[in-house]
Amino acid sequence: MKKHSARVAPLSACNSPVLTLTKVEGEERPREPPGPAEAQAPAGTEAGGRTSRHRWTCSQEQLRKVFWGVAVVFCVCASWAGSTQLARLTFKTFDAPFTLTWFATNWNFLFFPLYYAGHVCKSTEKQSVKQRYRECCRFFGDNGLTLKVFFTKAAPFGVLWTLTNYLYLHAIKKINATDVSVLFCCNKAFVFLLSWIVLRDRFMGVRIVAAILAIAGIVMMTYADGFHSHSVIGIALVVGSASMSALYKVLFKLLLGSAKFGEAALFLSILGVFNIVFITCIPIILYFTRVEYWNSFDDIPWGNLCGFSILLLTFNIVLNFGIAVTYPTLMSLGIVLSVPVNAVVDHYTSQIVFNGVRVIAIIIIGLGFLLLLLPEEWDVWLIKLLTRLKVRKKEETAESSGDLGTGPQSRSRRARPSFAR
Fold it and tell me: What is the pTM of this model?
């Protein structure tokens, strides 16, 4: 039996710098949704030979992916907003953002075991854990995962992962969750700018506009609170977190390229191992220096810590492996939709003031995020759609004028008496 494998590449925008699956090779998969011009199909002809109006058609496979997309959007939105709000709640009794980051990152170790469990349940060619591990290790080169590869291709990403999450959580202590979540959406604009500069990706004017909107939104968000030091520090922390996440994604694509499902799961588990082995000393140092100190372990809200870790793990799993059942664009929508969810929660649980400047900043950043979701061929699709609509309008005009021109003549011929015998 021919073995198929899905190869994926990093995509953007998440609380953690995850490896989002976006490209599939070597297996039959439904293609991306067609452009507006491609989605129209003739619907036959009417009586009298006139062409009927076009109808939008959608295959059963596309409908299935859209259905799963709605479920994935809900999961991404709920886990993203839930983890942000739970972290804010945790800091009221446990003021230790780095310790929370370390504790939640340890759960990354579960990625590969969960992937292997899914492989055993679904795959027709089952492999042992050792065989699957060796196959996934080819992602790091012919020699597999060596000590040199670990420190050169895994450890730097572990540091970036920790910085991204720590800066994000530390920002939640300074400013409200709504501002943190909307400012982190600028991550996608930073990814585009770095990809354009470092990876020489295709230049797109609409994405430059989106990046400008993101920067303008950051400035307006700072102005919304009157440039107070507390607010400025919080905004700087979120922007730093978004920058670290963008750097993570671009460097991953530059140094490692794309990864299969199993390879991505193994890589994330390796980040968890790196965190346990090399980052554990930092929370210990912060504890004994009383930077992040608690009186006893009974004072630690273990329920909140475990709940936050589970939500963050769920968020990363869905965002990384959701490509198997739906479109990447739909998954990204879950991130921007979490902003109004956080806004509603903050409205009832905190003293946030939604003044005009803050609302405009949220709208501008959200608009920039949505513009970055446009595919590279969006302008071609738009031209085809406008052309098709123009042709359809001409056909309808010709049909209506033809009916007006032939209708009275045919009625007069039927009404004229015949004297032929």
Answer: 0.77
